[in-house]
Amino acid sequence: MRDLSLHLTDLCQNSIQAGAQLVEVSLALADEGKLTLVIRDDGHGMDADTLGRVHSPFTTHRTTRKVGMGIPLTENNAVATGGGLEVISSPGKGTTLTATFFTRHIDCPPLGDLAETMATLILANPEAMDFTLSLRSPKGEERLDTREIRQALGEDVPLNTPEVVQWMIQATQDMIQQIFGGELQ
Questions:
Q1: Number of CB atoms found within 10 A of residue 177's CB
Q2: Residue 64 exposed, middle or buried by CB count within 10 Å (0-12, 13-18, 19+)
């Protein structure tokens, strides 16, 4: 995959298919260029047998194809930078995926369009679920939470209203600039 936002899209799809009502995405950049991506959901979770096979591209629960490349490709890209990937899950308790990348490594994929990615995920699921996006670096911390946006808008204004979508994209771009400004592209 060309960038981290594409990995994020694919990995969040796993959470959506697992029946998650809340998907929490976190990106934390440390001083030495270590980027930690965490995706936590409250979906169905996986049993020990399935969890043991998630690193294989031939493990998927999708019926549209026989391979699942999201986790293996993310792990491959993380390992190529000197990082790694860990998945923790149990039935009924959801799943937490943690991937670490060293951004100063030549093989680290760029961030990509994180704002558009998050907007697309939210738009594809405007009523069914909520998302949070937390960004942290030595420059500070910012958070976007669709539950808070829903509360501020009230019941009459859905998240897929064009003005709301534009606001979410701009707010996310501003967060990225403030927290990662120039360090992640």
A1: 12
A2: exposed
| Dihedral over Cα of 50, 54, 60, 61: its sign | positive
Burial class of residue 71 in the structure, from the number of CB atoms within 10 Å of its CB (0-12 exposed, 13-18 middle, 19+ buried): buried
Give the SS3 label for residue 169. Answer: helix
Question: What is the edge-to-edge ordering of all strands in the sheet holding 34-41?
Answer: 84-90, 94-102, 34-41, 22-29, 130-137, 140-145
The domain defined by 4-180 carries CATH number 3.30.565.10: yes
pTM of the predicted model as reported, rounded to 2 decimal places:
0.89
pLDDT digits (tens, 9 = 90+) for 145-172: 999 999 999 988 889 899 999 999 999 9
DSSP β-bridge partners for residue 22: 130
Instruction: Collapse the DSSP code of 95 into the 3-class scheme (helix H, G, I; strand E, B; otherwise coil) and give the result.
Output: strand
Answer for the pair 184, 29: CB distance below 8 angstroms, yes or no: yes
Task: Tell me the domain boundaries of the chain.
Answer: 4-180
Which DSSP symbol is given to 1? -
The one-character DSSP state at 13 is H
